[in-house]
Specification:
The protein has 106 residues and is α/β, with parallel strands linked by helices. It is built from 3 helices and 5 strands; from the N terminus they run βαβαββαβ. It has helices at residues 12-18, 50-53, 89-97; strands at residues 7-11, 35-39, 60-64, 75-78, 104-105. Strands 4-3-2-1-5 form a 5-stranded parallel β-sheet. The radius of gyration is 13 Å and the shape is globular.
Length: 106
């Protein structure tokens, strides 16, 4: 499924609990890994997370409401904060729609 998707989207809780790579690890399919996207409003993802450690090899984007200096090859997508602390997905999907992402796995 990952090899057939342009991107995969998970929340910060998934990253904190499972520490996933979210890559395609089937032999010969590694290059088909999707863009990995995490909804993390406060940029709380630890620098020790596998997603961060592999960001320079496989695209990694964060949907966030904060803009701070994050490196490691991570792309930040600024999402307006609503009345609560969640990412506004209606707003977040607009810039994603301008990219090559057509198939989003969540």
């Amino acid at each position: 499924m990952r090899a057939q998707s342009d991107a995969i989207l998970v929340g910060l809780s998934t990253v904190l609990i499972d520490d996933p790579e979210l890559t395609c690890r089937l032999p010969g399919m590694e290059a088909r890994s999707p863009i990995r996207i995490v909804a993390d409003t406060r940029l709380s993802i630890p620098s020790t997370a596998k997603l961060v450690k592999t960001a320079e090899q496989v695209s990694f984007w964060i949907l966030t409401t904060r803009k701070v200096g994050v490196s490691y090859g991570i792309t930040l997508i600024d999402c307006r904060q609503t009345t609560n602390v969640w990412v506004n997905f209606a707003y977040a999907l607009q810039p994603l729609g301008l990219t090559r992402i057509e198939r989003l796995l969540d």
